[in-house]
Design brief:
The complex is a heterodimer of chains A (285) and B (306). Chain A is mainly α and 285 residues long. Chain A has 12 helices and no strands. Chain B is built from 12 helices and no strands. The longest helix of chain B has 54 residues. The N and C termini of chain B lie far apart (57 Å). The chains are: A mainly alpha (285), B mainly alpha (306).
Chain lengths: 285, 306
């Protein structure tokens, strides 16, 4: 066998290995999903979704968990979106190339890399103790808002960056001020990209358990929260709690709750992907 | 007449200008809040850690080989938690790096364009699944499976937590490395082909070295992610701080310890309570150093092609 034959063989071998590696992740994903479905799907019924938690696995439901998740999503959106978008607009449209701008940029990249559990410690001290919010919904939503803020800022900046200079120039030429240009031209033009980022950040917030456990969200909440100062639990914490129990029945509950959680995550991501492709096709500058 | 018009304009413009300044101020404030967040994180971690280290010597903290703050016989050596964290991280990277890098090279050098466009978003699904779900997989699927191969494997262990964490970070390494490789100009690849190289030789002889800074950055970010990962290890790796490199026994990571204390009933202000901040600041230093290392490499070694 000549050298070039050997090399060609190695090349083919790597190609096979490449296909193998590409699919191994997807196969494992498929195994996981199928396993979860087999284990949990039969447990999902109307009672499971509308029942309060219980010490008996067969009677326990996820009503308080998904209600808590919806509350957290809503409150986090209200807090994080305006803040994140405003910061993104400032950094992209207003700030000049100063030392402060440079520092802000490094700082935001750093915040994106801080482990979520550290945000939990921050939230527990600042919101839980110093502001006296304890383990309430508001405390949890504020903590998660800080967690997803870097994601929103970065995606907002990218969306704004994609708006061409000529749109701004045209607006200025008509006598519009900076804010009028930003509000009436730049933001509507980058709306699709910003929305995609927002939804992706929400899908991140939906799955977080660690920071909420640290601020003191409970696994067992026997009522549906009715105000932002109520105690709460969320789906991931409920899943964690059920998974940590030794009885097999609770594992089935956990699998069923995972199906619901994955459904929410996939729907959010699906919307984001759809919006991204729709906007990419529609807007051509 | 012109004067009149001018003053009229000024009058109309005055409130607008004030409005503009107020809005700019508000936007500036939103951006500056991010600095406050960092300051608050450092302040919270430092202030509680300082009171911790006034009771426990920092030398004990760094050299004691046992971590038992919740027992009667208290030891405050962070090493077992660090060892647990590094062990699960090492296993995760050992899984994710070869697979992720191979995927990046394969998608760039071998796969047809349409295949790449379908597979990339599919792989990214792996990164969107909540980590608590991965923990469930590790405990209920991967550990029982591995126990068939390694009968001595404990129910909680670093191995299956690490492997599952590795699967989770595959898309992180593959995506970022793939971006780095595809940023290498075509001319380099064509030069390699022109010399008679195979695709494999081109990939690992030219493209990967040319994209090495981007690949290293992707690995560092993946390590940082794995170090801070909480729910997978909290569910599947156990809660027994132990200074070992044996992946088959229960261990405890820094993050798991924080969760363990948060779930329990530790009174605020006690020494046990402060241990989670001492553990937290250790974790923060690790990830902070890794993240900044990655920025530095990105800035310093980024190859510029024109």
């Amino acid at each position: 066998m000549t050298n070039s034959d050997k090399n060609r063989l190695k090349d083919k071998a790597f190609q096979v290995f490449g296909i193998f590696c590409t699919f191994i992740g997807l196969v494992v994903l498929a195994i996981f999903l199928i396993d979860i479905l087999i284990e949990g799907i039969s447990r999902i019924d109307w009672d499971f979704i509308t029942s309060l938690p219980s010490r008996r696995a067969s009677r326990a439901g996820i009503l308080t968990a998904w209600a808590g998740t919806l509350w957290i999503l809503g409150l986090t959106s209200v807090i994080a979106f305006p803040l994140g978008i405003a910061a993104g607009v400032y950094l992209e449209e207003y700030s000049k190339k100063t030392k402060l701008a440079n520092f802000l940029e490094i700082n935001i990249a750093n915040l994106a890399g801080v482990p979520s559990i550290i945000y939990g410690l921050l939230g527990m001290e600042i919101f839980g103790r110093i502001l006296g919010l304890g383990g309430s919904l508001l405390s949890g939503a504020l903590t998660l808002s800080l967690l997803i803020l870097p994601i929103i800022i970065v995606t907002t900046r990218e969306a704004i960056k994609a708006v061409p200079r000529s749109i701004r120039d045209a607006s200025y030429a008509l006598g519009a001020s900076k804010w009028q240009t930003t509000w009436n031209q730049v933001l509507p033009a980058s709306f699709g990209g910003i929305l995609t980022g927002i939804i992706l950040s929400l899908s991140r917030a939906v799955g977080e358990a660690a920071p909420l456990i640290v601020i003191g969200a409970l696994a067992y909440v026997p009522f549906v929260p009715t105000s932002p100062t109520d105690e709460f639990t969320v789906l991931p914490i409920q899943i964690f709690n059920w998974t940590s129990r030794p009885q097999a029945d609770f594992l089935v509950n956990a699998a069923a709750a995972i199906i619901i959680l994955l459904l929410i995550t996939f729907i959010l991501n699906g919307i984001a992907v759809y919006l991204r492709s729709k906007w990419q096709n529609k807007v051509k500058w | 007449m012109r004067l009149l018009l001018k003053s009229h304009l000024a009058c109309k413009n005055f409130p607008l200008r004030v409005q503009e300044r107020i809005i700019e101020g508000l936007l500036w404030l939103s951006a500056v809040i991010t600095i406050l967040i960092t300051a608050a994180i450092i302040w919270v971690l430092l202030s509680e850690s300082v009171s911790f280290f006034s009771e426990v010597s920092i030398i004990d903290f760094l050299t004691d080989k046992e971590w038992t703050p919740l027992f009667a016989q208290k030891h405050f050596g962070i090493l077992p938690l660090v060892a647990g964290t590094l062990l699960t991280t090492a296993i995760a990277i050992a899984v994710a790096l070869p697979i992720g890098l191979t995927i990046a090279v394969y998608l760039n050098e071998y796969a047809p364009g349409r295949f790449k466009q379908t597979v990339k978003p599919l792989l990214e699904i792996l990164a969107t699944i909540p980590t608590v779900v991965y923990g469930f997989f590790a405990l209920t699927v991967v550990t029982p499976f591995l126990q068939k191969i390694i009968p001595t494997l404990a129910g909680f262990n670093a191995l299956s937590a690490g492997i599952v964490m590795g699967i989770m970070i595959i898309p992180m390494i593959s995506s970022l490395s793939e971006d780095a490789i595809s940023a290498v100009p075509r001319s380099l690849r064509e030069a390699a082909y022109g010399m008679g190289s195979t695709r494999l030789q081109t990939a690992f002889g030219v493209m990967v070295p040319a994209a090495s800074s981007g690949i290293v950055v992707s690995v560092i970010l993946a390590i940082s992610r794995a170090v801070g990962e909480t729910m997978i290890v909290a569910i599947a790796a156990g809660q027994q701080p132990r200074l070992t490199l044996d992946p088959t026994v229960p261990i405890e990571t820094i993050t798991t310890y924080i969760v363990q204390v948060s779930l329990g009933d530790v009174p605020h202000g006690s020494l046990e309570y402060r241990t989670i901040f001492a553990a937290g600041i250790t974790l923060f230093i690790f990830t902070f150093a890794l993240n900044n290392l990655s920025f530095w490499i990105k800035k310093k070694y980024q190859e510029k092609y024109d």
